[in-house]
Amino acid sequence: MKKNACLLLLVAAFLFACKKSDVPGVPAEEVPTDTGYHYKSDYAYNLNVVYFIASDKTANDDYHRRISEVMLQGQEFYGKWMKHWGFGDKSFGLLKDVAKKRIKIIEIKGKLSQSNYSYDSGSGNVLKEINEYFAAHPAEKTSDHTLIIMCVKDIQADKAPFYGLGRNCFALDYPGMDIKDLGAGGTAGSEATGWIGGLMHELGHGINLPHNGGQKSENTQFGTSLMGAGNSTYGKAPTYLTKADCAILNNNQVFSKVTRSDWYTSFSPVITRLNAKYEGGNIVVSGRFSGGGGVNYINFYNDGNKNGIGGNKDYDAVPWSTQKIGLDSFYVSMPFSEFTNTEDYPYELRIMFCNQNGSLVTAPYPYEIKNGQPLVDFGDKNEYNKTNWQVIDFSSEETVAEDGKVANILDKNNTTAWVTRWNTNAPTFPHHFVVNMEQSLVADGFTFTQRGGSSKIKDMQILTSTDNISWTALGNYVLKDVGGPQFIYLPAPKTFKYFKVIVTSATDGRQYASLAEVGVFKN
Length: 523
What we know:
Elements: H1 2-17, E1 48-53, H2 63-84, E2 96-97, E3 102-103, E4 106-109, H3 123-136, E5 146-151, H4 155-158, E6 164-165, E7 168-173, H5 186-206, H6 216-222, E8 224-225, E9 239-240, H7 243-249, E10 270-279, E11 282-290, E12 295-304, E13 318-323, E14 329-335, E15 346-355, E16 360-370, E17 373-375, E18 390-394, E19 418-419, E20 431-450, E21 459-465, E22 472-478, E23 484-503, E24 514-515, E25 517-521
Parallel strand pairs: 1-4, 1-5, 5-7, 8-9
Antiparallel strand pairs: 2-3, 6-7, 10-11, 11-14, 12-13, 12-15, 15-16, 16-17, 18-20, 19-24, 20-23, 20-25, 21-22, 21-23
Pfam family, one: F5_F8_type_C
Protein name: F5/8 type C domain-containing protein
Keywords: Signal
């Protein structure tokens, strides 16, 4: 017995004394290393947290503790608002050692110097190296969402990426950044709120959240929306997530405790009926849709043009969120009194369908405020059926580099579009198309739906004909640089069989043109 025991001790001593690569018969990457932390999670997927260090930098002191504390507080913050809005006791998943209050952070040493990982153009280099790491260590990647914390020594001089980029998001760690400084005075406090609050804001983008500013009464009660200006209030003044934020997160992969195989697969909901009006101080929108069987929530964002619409200009968008009604319907009543800005300028209502697999599809609709009152001019018109219509002439179409065929303007699908040829031999203005409606129809106007991309139509001319030989010009018109249907009303009913649209400029000043849908209506 003694001899066997000694032998076992010698073997054990040998194993623990050797480097991982020196253990015979065991690949280096398979030999476990006891780091002193034992990370667990009850979520099916967990946020990947990467600490990225350029080749000419060294890790900031005590970053594991500091970042862990930031992320654990952030997990509590997100979970608090999920529970508040009725989505249950859940947040984003993290691999963590609960007893020691540490999370798993993947440290990656960059191959290049900091100047190659700049704010303006360096994110691609960072993502390339992170993807290479995950390809070599697939078990380390526990979800499709990654928070990348850039190690910097000087916030301004190092100019590291700090933004959301799809399901990846960038933040930074500077020497001494610490959660204990949140709410403190002086430089340490302002930096902590700005950069830790900024981390939480960019994390929101990395887990699919758009900007939005909350409703007026919510801002009074809860403070500032994180996905609005909350990156400047987090930790020092009341900050919150809106219900629309939480409806998106409810379907997010890293908020799930069950596995599924179809995360973020595309779907194509189509609004088949839409009614909208301003009545009794409320903007009331209702409708039905098809192709969205997995939808459970519909969000509504009212984005005003005071600071610009969409992109990075929608911090003040006022959101609502409702559950789907039955299988295919929605209804929302949005009090105008909840708008934070009520000046006269264009607005865009974005209707977002939230699928249980995490995918999101948005349909935009323009309206405006005039004399302090919303003028809601979207919703169904009595459009003629386009099933037998044909485009019989057009200037060009892009069918090599993308599906930009001109027939897309008649397919009743706002996610497809006509795009003039741009891949090779791109023609310049004017661009045109001619539609044959197969029979003479009496029309009160036209519906034009811009595509959600570049080179939207700005200036155009509309002509009509009964024989495709003699043409009558109806006039020159201007479309807005917004998504959703826009209506052109004729001064008097007009009968025609053919119509021609001649495009003379685009909203972005480029030489191309694009359009999602065109229709004709009779009220």
